[in-house]
Prior knowledge:
The protein has a three-stranded antiparallel beta sheet. It has one domain (about 5-360). With about 375 residues, the protein is mainly alpha-helical. Strand 1 (about 95) and strand 2 (about 100-105) form a beta hairpin. It has helices at about 5-10, 10-35, 40-60, 70-90, 110-130, 140-155, 160-175, 180-195, 195-200, 205-215, 225-240, 250, 265-295, 300-325, 345-360, and strands at about 95, 100-105, 105-110. The chain contains 15 helices and three strands.
Amino acid sequence: MLDRRLIQNFDWVLLLLLLFLAGISILNLYSATYPIRDMGGGEIFTKQIYWFLIGFAVFLLMTTFNYYVLERLAYPVYFVAVALLILVLITGKVMSGSQRWLSLGPVSFQPSELAKIAIVLVMAKFFSDRGENREFRLRDLWQPLILTAVPCFLILKEPDLGTALFLGMISASTVLMAKVYWKSLIILVCSTLSVVPLVWFGLKEYQQKRILSFLSPGMDPLGSGYHVSQSKIAIGSGQFWGKGFLKGTQTRLHFLPEQHTDFAFSVLAEEWGMVGSVLLLLIYLFIILWGLNIAKSSKDRFGAMVAVGIVTIIFWQVVINVGMVTGLLPVVGIPLVLFSYGGSSLISTMAAMGILMNISMRRFMFQ
């Protein structure tokens, strides 16, 4: 039976923020797929509505149990995620030259999305087990390094450079929260920078071209630089108020590539201008700040670290995607969280937000 105190402490602010974001996302997706309805755009829009309904069901489901259970399940969830990443390299479905999806009948999903939640749980478990006031040195971090490196390596083999880097950023953010000795932190940063040249030679040719196009936007405007060029035209043409709903020329004429996934923000910026863009970013800011407030008021270290980990999932996806579509960062294929089309990303993110809600609801209760 559900404790009445949990209902009283239900986080309505977090739910309303998610509902508001979902509404804007669906409206923007309708516009993004409107000119391609004869090519399946209507089906994309309808599917996303179903994914949101399923996502909110998962969100509510994740609030029905005590999140302390996740502390015991952290390592099992991690090993399941790694097993699925190995399975996707063996039997996964190949789409657009990448092997990232597992098929369950008519439904396909990306195990890398589960890996994001798994890395948050296992890092929170590792650091919470080792005390709250301890300051970690470099020799203490070899286990987190291995825990992060294994899924990152498997995701790189798909290949999916963006998600692998993103996973590393989530892990690094958690390590920083765990209070690392500053000398160890400097050594870790310098060591990471020293292997950048080796990483460069390990990249695929198209990945190298994307980075070179970022450094020199005019190098290949009709090839590797096309995506960003068209995106910047769309964003800039929106100006202050935007061109209006369904009136974006870059979107309507389909000059904007991947306009319902990676470049969904560009569609919004063209049609609703700076006003709409700032409003969307403010919603993300409120979600991030609210999540940090939940972490701060959590009664245990595990809950606080999980909450911060979930916030970093939202934060880094917003920073990377918005930076990518505005030309401030290289194009790495990271969608805008809870906004771009995609079932796997949406369901996993709503599950993570459900865990955040779970921590919020139980922050007033004794263990």
